[in-house]
Amino acid sequence: xxxxxxxxxxxxxxxxxxxxxxxxxxxxxxxxxxxxxxxxxxxxxxxxxxxxxxxxxxxxxxxxxxxxxxxxxxxxxxxxxxxxxxxxxxxxxxxxxxxxxxxxxxxxxxxxxxxxxxxxxxxxxxxxxxxxxxxxxxxxxxxxxxxxxxxxxxxxxxxxxxxxxxxxxxxxxxxxxxxxxxxxxxxxxxxxxxxxxxxxxxxxxxxxxxxxxxxxxxxxxxxxxxxxx
Length: 229
Prior knowledge:
Layout: E1 12-13, E2 18-26, H1 33-43, E3 47-54, E4 59-65, H2 73-81, E5 86-95, E6 99-100, E7 108-109, E8 112-113, H3 129-144, H4 151-154, E9 165-171, E10 174-180, H5 186-205, E11 209-217, E12 220-227
Antiparallel strand pairs: 1-6, 2-4, 2-5, 3-4, 7-8, 9-10, 10-12, 11-12
InterPro entries: ACT-like_dom_sf, ACT_dom
Protein name: ACT domain-containing protein
Organism: Vulcanisaeta distributa (strain DSM 14429 / JCM 11212 / NBRC 100878 / IC-017)
């Protein structure tokens, strides 16, 4: 499947290692910043384990393995600050702990703080009508923030809510959304898709919709929706 699974990387194994996280504020967003900073770490034998960037905040976050570095932290900080585009550098080092949990980064969606829950843990919640209503309203909310565009592109918003890799087809007045993922329970995905996309499509199309069919193929589940007149 041609899709990258992007791990939130909530912890890093650190036994017998020196791990660190660096938060770097840059002054303007321009080409070459990430490459230049990454090269500084590489030049000193520092392995980059994870990189995140927020272009709104102008912040870069690196999680690195400094076990085999050939420089001091003080000199490394000075070298990073030599770039004209670097405003400040903050870092935190953890030595030989079983795990390091990066604390200079927080998961967000559209710059809003989120609560991260594995989909498999929602299985029992799907029997609760209130939980299903929340998922439907989430679809409505996401759709309300989008401008008019190709529906095939808009429905991909669900992919970033954790609903697998999604593709849309339309035929004879029926909208079918196909979700594929090697990681998830298809039956959990099916129920979440029904609620989320009922809210999403109703908002986008300004008309009520209902799920009228479902099917499975390999790691994929397809849900068909009919627009109600």
